[in-house]
Write a structure and sequence with these properties.
Helices cover 48% and strands 14% of the residues. By secondary structure, the chain is α/β, with parallel strands linked by helices. Helix 2 (57-71) packs parallel to helix 3. The termini are far apart. Keywords: Oxidoreductase. Residues 2-176 form the Ketoreductase domain. Belongs to the short-chain dehydrogenases/reductases (SDR) family.
Length: 273
């Protein structure tokens, strides 16, 4: 029986992943800033609910140590906790951007660092980092959010190469729009710039208008994620949602066409052998 450690279980993907795992007989370390919001999970299976603010490194280390003490080790880490911010790049408030990076990137890195010693000792484990299709493609009004997810994608790529010889896998999960609380809870700047109304402003309003009507079903996504992790050959990247799939492939096509057109330039700047 595998032990899964999941951040951000009070709502959204984290909640659905935890519930599905408990329904299928797994052990779950469910974390949230407010454990009252996950107290009901205790009646659904073998679960250890822990208070965890992922931006508190001491609390991260304590939660991981408690999980390892209770269950003997962590088999799968799911870095799910995250926050959003709707603003054009020029509109963005530096303090708000830094707070978002603390949650979306630096906190995820801290949790990874905390679980790796145990995984290395056992020479096994899977680290799952929930990024976003915004970690592969930038979009208006969420430039800094996308940047935080691009950063986590890059960290995951490097980490994958470092830990593969140790028997540890790394998967990034790139969802498109799902019916979670993310769009409703994302912050906005105090002041907006009229010149960005047709781009970032329109996108920000579209995000708000989409709440509850997004195409993605988080319960189905949770099942797909667990299947992918437990498959004989887990993917390095898992796209979730039609929009995510179409957007990712369209970007690959654009990049390949542009790179191919500039091949002679790229190859023409190395020093002679």
């Amino acid at each position: 029986m595998a032990t899964w450690f999941i951040t951000g279980c009070s709502t959204g993907f984290g909640r659905h992943i935890a519930e599905h795992l408990l329904d299928t007989g797994h052990r779950v370390v469910a974390t949230a800033r407010n454990t009252a919001k996950i107290a009901d999970l205790a009646s659904q299976g073998e679960v250890l609910p822990l208070e965890l603010d992922v931006t508190n490194p001491a609390q991260v280390r304590s939660a991981v140590a408690r999980a390892e003490e209770e269950f003997g080790g962590i088999d799968v880490l799911v870095n799910n906790a995250g926050s959003g911010y709707f603003a054009a790049v020029e509109e963005s408030e530096p303090d708000a951007v830094r707070r978002m990076f603390d949650v979306n990137f630096f906190a995820a890195a801290d949790v990874i660092t905390a679980v790796l010693p145990g995984m290395r000792r056992r020479r096994s484990g899977v680290i799952v980092n929930l990024t976003s299709i915004g970690g592969l493609e930038g979009f208006e009004s969420v430039g800094h959010y996308c940047a935080s997810k691009f950063a986590l994608e890059g960290l995951s790529d490097a980490l994958r190469k470092e830990v593969a010889p140790l028997g540890i896998g790394v998967m990034t999960v790139e969802p498109s729009a799902f019916r979670t609380e993310w769009a409703g809870s994302a912050a906005e700047p105090a002041e907006v710039i009229d010149d960005y109304a047709p781009t970032a402003g329109a996108a920000r309003q579209a995000y708000r208008d989409s709440i509850g009507k997004q195409a993605g079903d988080p319960a189905l996504a949770a099942r797909a994620l667990v299947r992918a992790v437990e498959s004989p050959t887990p993917p390095q990247r898992l796209l979730l949602g039609n929009e995510a799939y179409d957007t990712a492939l369209a970007k690959l096509d654009r990049m390949r066409a542009e790179f191919t057109a500039q091949e002679s330039t790229a190859r023409g700047v190395d020093a002679p052998a």
